[in-house]
Amino acid sequence: RGLVRLGDVATIVREARPAALTMTEVETETVQSHGAATVEMLVQRAENGHSLRAARLFQQWLDDTRPTLPPSIQISVFDEQWQLIRDRIDLLVGNGIQGFALVLLFLFIFLPGRVALWVAMGIPTAYLAALALLWLFGGTINMMSLFALLLTLGVIDDDAIVIGEYAESRFRMGLPPAEAAIAGARRMFWPVTASALTTVAAFLPLMMVGGIMGNILWDIPFVAIMVLIASLLEVFLIMPAHLRSAFSHQVQQVTPAWRKRVDAGFDYFRDHMYRPLVVLSLRWRGVTVSLVAVLMLLTVGLLAGGRIAFVFFPTPEAQIVFANATFVAGTPRDRTQAFLSELERALSQTDRELGGGLVDAAVARLGATVAVEVGAGARGDQLASILVQLVPSERRTVRNEEFLAAWRHNVALPAGIESLVVSTRKSGPPGRDLNVRLTGDDAQALKSAALDLAQSLEGIPGVSDMVDDMPFGREQLIYRVSPAGQSLGVTTELLGRQLRAAFDGHLAQLVQVGSDELEVRVLLPRAERTRLDALEQLRIRLSDGQFVPLDTVADWETRRGFEALRHADGQLAVEVTADVNRALNTPDGVRQALERDLLPPLVTHYGVGYSFEGRAADQRETLGDMKMGLYLGLGLVFLILAAVFSSWGWPLVVMTSIPLGLVGAIVGHWIMGIDLTLLSLFGLFGLSGIVVNNAIILVSMYQELRHSGLGVDKALEDAACSRLRAMLLTSATTVVGLGPLLFETSLQAQFLIPMAVSLAFGIGFATVLVLIFIPALLSLHESAHRRIAGWFAPEPEVQEETGSA
Q: Taking the CB of residue 255, how many other CB atoms lie within 10 A of it?
């Protein structure tokens, strides 16, 4: 036999192996802005970097680089996240300064000037101590930590007000300055300590919230607890010395006439308006308690009747909006380019129709989509997208939803487009408003169910931009072993192995050439691999060594495949996502409609399972953690009160002020016309620890008066009247401290306002009810206690006297 070399029977080519697909070209992405070729560069700070300092360094680099560039190259900066950080920090600082000024004004009106000054000085002192602790534990100054400082603005001076007001009343009764200051700190030590600890106990469970929401909101309870602890140390260790100095100066000072009028007006209100009201509530204590119970039931009706909706995490209106277009797989690139031009035309038309000047920057991408969540967007010739930066929301009257609706309306949809998502970037937890996961074993059934669900969602008001993550792919050839092939011993594995070797190559050997490792693959020539009729000429080798034509052992059918198949919990899964217009509906409302009407027949017809994922999963996890935290917080509050009062019954009376605060918070949301949110729930947690403070002060004063020999009703009446000024002042400073944020019109502050509403309305409403309701409830408690004690008291012995006449 002659020598036959490999080169005699095969063509040997040395070439690079494609990293992805072997039979198609690798998709490329092109970027344009205003019709010009564009290179996009993403600049990010380090994980532990300083956002504002990094922005200054970047701006300096721009100033140094721009003069060195040729005239044909320009650098434009857009989507600057640091500006949002700066604006929101400035907003919170501005609101904080306004709130601090209002708190100072209230203190100076109702307390002597120097006493008010030293009471107010507890605020910056506690803030500085809290910032030091924040630095010690590795925290940062961010939007959430600043928001926590703002929320505690009116709360941290409550302890100082209680001690300062009591000490000032002792001083007016004739005690020397030093003794009056010490008497205030000593008498109010346990009530103030209990008040601070109950507030800490209310915020503490919020630090146990896990998941991404716990990471976002952890700074709020942490900073609040640090501020409260710092305030507690300041009022007992530092403020008494300052009060002594203030009282010493007050001895030589003549009381201004306006202050005498203020004091006289308050005394008249207390003695001639409030005292008769307390007497009336004690006389009709059953009616008083019943009226408050009815008010609670009406408030529950607001929630049960859907008058107040719940939105898990509303986000501020973003400057970035985008459009993602997806065509059928295999769509020519020039067709996608034509639709991208149509999107740009519709964008310009929308801008003109809405008054012009709304679009600040626009970047068009061919071959890729904008990432809706964290991570890279999809790539492929059938994809196109436009990212648009609008002018800041404060500088325009057109809202994002209106702009997006007009943009959708102006786009002419071509044939062959699978989906067009026109949406806005959302901050906060990742994911879109609605995310439904369907699971099953059949990919075709899952896709049909997803398409059916997306079509059904179109009938729900406010739902738009439905898309699933199982896009159709290219047409596929599906082979099966024919009966003739089975009789010849052909298996699916044998067919698959030989077809893969023919079109993707059989690895025959690895050769080391210098520092490179070469794969020696045997496969069909390129010209045959790109022709469909090659399948008709391909021959299959049987296990006995014989060759037969492929079409005699295999049957073929065409089927449209999928670009990607995803799994969840061991099953095939597809997720259908959509956006929800908050002006028309809420994500919770849409999910309830789905579970009630749409998903049950879908499950029955297609044999699939479903679950709500994304933000709904975050909501389930967060609310579950908060439910456990609620039990823990209430338990800690009860134990603290039981230790302070040495009673099991009085803590329950004091804790009835918690539902009073919840009533005020819910009614406040209804009055303001805003939805309950996750931050509203955070506010309710903090509120549950704050509203008991006034009740603690009232009950502690009642204890003191009872020990002095007063009757129950008289002691309750005098306790309520004697602590009226302190309770009103602590509540008023908290409300006015939150006032500027409460009525903030900036759209960037809207998602913070619900927590401020919970605290401000809850504290204000609870204070009014506590001043009337708690004395009546305490009177009922004392009567019930005496009655129960009488049941178990031993009967007195009766001794008979005997005598003789």
A: 10
What is the chain's mean pLDDT, rounded?
Answer: 82
pLDDT bracket for residue 560 (50, 70, 90): confident
For 621, counting Cβ atoms within 10 Å of its Cβ (0-12 exposed, 13-18 middle, 19+ buried), the class is middle
- Rounded Cα distance between 373 and 495, Å, is 41
Pairwise CA distance, residues 170 & 533, whole Å: 105
The answer for residues whose C-beta is within 8 angstroms of residue 217's C-beta and 6 or more apart is: 144, 206, 209, 678, 679, 682
DSSP bridge pairs for 575: 437
pLDDT of residue 22: 39
Residue 13 burial (CB count, 10 A)? 7
Q: How far apart are the first and last CA of the chain?
A: 159
DSSP H or E run through 417: strand 417-424
Q: For residue 802, is pLDDT > 60?
A: no
Which residue did the predictor score with more confidence, 425 or 386?
A: 386
pLDDT tens-digit readout, 73-96: 888 888 787 777 787 778 778 877
CA angle 34, 35, 37 (to 5 degrees): 105
The band of 23, judged by pLDDT with boundaries at 50, 70 and 90, is: very low
Residue 287 has pLDDT above 80, yes or no: yes
d(CA 139, CA 558): 59
Amino acid at 234: E
> Which of 758, 543, 607, 728 shows the shortest CA–CA distance to 668?
758
What's phi and psi for 69, nearest 5 deg? -90, 150
Per DSSP, which regions of 491-550 are E strands?
506-513, 516-522, 539-541, 547-549
DSSP string, 601-644: HHHHHH--EEEE-THHHHHHHHHHHHHHHHHHHHHHHHHHHHHH
